[in-house]
Amino acid sequence: MKNTVRSLIDICIIMCGVFLIIHRRVISAALTGEQMPEAPEWHKKFCPCKKEK
Questions:
Q1: How many Cα atoms within 13 Å fall on the side-chain side of residue 13?
Q2: What is the pTM of this model?
């Protein structure tokens, strides 16, 4: 049980790191007040609520 919990925590830490690496430009823009970068085409396809009008 102890090893399972430790493994789950390790996986969560790795996934948080991956999230931060993937979204680094968006996070930087949000913190500095710059314009948000354009989302890639595949991202727009999976998020229909964010389509441009």
A1: 6
A2: 0.67
